[in-house]
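FIELD: query
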Amino acid sequence: MSNVATRPDVIEVDAVVIGAGFAGLYSVHKLRNDLGLTVQAFDNAEEVGGTWFWNRYPGARSDTEVNAYCYFFDRELYENWQWTERYPRYPEIRAYLNHVADKYDLRKSYQFSTQIESAIFNEDSNRWIITTDKGQELSAQFLVEAVGLLSATNIPEFKGQDSFTGEIYHTARWPQEGVDLSGKRVAVIGTGSSGIQVISEIAPTVEHLTVLQRTPQWVVPSRHRPIDPDLLQRIREDYDGYHHSLLYSTTAFGFEESDISAESVPEPERLSRFEQVYEDGGGFQYMFRAFNDVATSLVANKAATDVIEKKIRETVTAPEVADKLVPTELYAKRPLCCDNYYETYNRSNVTLVDAKENPVLEFTPNGILAGDTEYEVDVIVLATGFDAVSGNQLRIFQQGRNGLTLQDKWRDRPHAYLGMTTAEFPNLFMVYGPMGPFTNQPPVHEAQVNWIADAIKYTLESRAETIEPTRQAEDEWMTLCDEGANATLFPQVNSWINGANVPGKPVVNYFFMGGMAAYMGHMIADTESNYRDHFAFHGARVSA
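FIELD: result
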């Protein structure tokens, strides 16, 4: 389809896709196999997998039930792939993504071990000029960034880090060959989702584990178990209905969400219901399956945390340790789940350090100095998370119309429409970008990529050269997102959800908190209006 003359050494394609995880693989399939576009895709990893290529630390597994943590575009794929666990470990997820890449012959469109360094929109040709760290230059009409919500690593610098004579690893860049921690003295810095998993996994095998915790977390059990064959059979019997209910729920996690508010029932019933859901396990389940107002009502939120606090104090035998593990904040972060987390602190080889009271001052040759105590260790694990949501976009130099860079436009906060587009950056699409829904990701990736493909198809069929959201549409969407977030409790707690985990990053709302069903409504409205209510088209003549 491309017909713009370029230099002989410039690779010309219809679309460039960045990323080889759930979103990137499906983007290549949809644009190349369904729309018939020429597509060149890149990823900085050595193989497909996205975040699951890198996330291979001990204990790494999905915290979303796998019946909803997968693709739905091909019923045969869904029915024939055999998952083994409710929450699969990373090797099983990687095997699944490799199977998808093979089944749809996606690797032939990829160049791995390649970093995109810049993407500059050429206003004369209405095309993106993309450069790689290999010195390549590409020209593409459309650019799709499937770079991952949680994949840009947040690696803090500690004083004296270079003096430490042991080994240092980040959970999100764990060595491909693995690390043998058995019999070693290990320190873990960070107790977010990755931290609690690695802590629970390695405690039984290391000589000693020191956990440096700045902020305690509300953690519920996962209740790992083999996947329920009866559940899978029920889904197969109503495949389309299940997929529809998934997309038209609040969280897209695939469980039955409550339509009852905690405030509407007596306190004993409130607590009893939280106890029941706690025993079945699951983070989002605990927040949304018991009642529908945990994220919006202080009464519901307190009932939820009262039950978790009770479980902490029943589980942890040392009262002073239990005190350190009980958060003082609201239950308003991404809800965490992990088996045997609190039980880990009953082990004689585990030490919990309050790193807020005794902050990490520096790394020493032999370990970590926190407060006035030096903890001698052989290995330090940084479970310090990600520069989430916008991190990977901003690590690529991107320039749109009139010399405007994405770095400048997003200096105070990311501005986007539907979490997929941003004004003044024509033909740029982001999968699960800023101001997208706060939900389970893979089903939403599919829905967004389908919308992106429809928008590209409409642009081409309309004989336009570019599509981009209007400033007004973007501003109205930002207002809607902020109003929705402010109606929840999430802004009252600092976390990666609002950027507070990265020094210097704007602490603002990064999500549409209105739920997946409402988000689907906004996407469908744009499709039905032929995108004309919120988008501008430029270039060749556009049909009416």
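FIELD: remark
Residues 44 and 113 are 4 Å apart (CA to CA).
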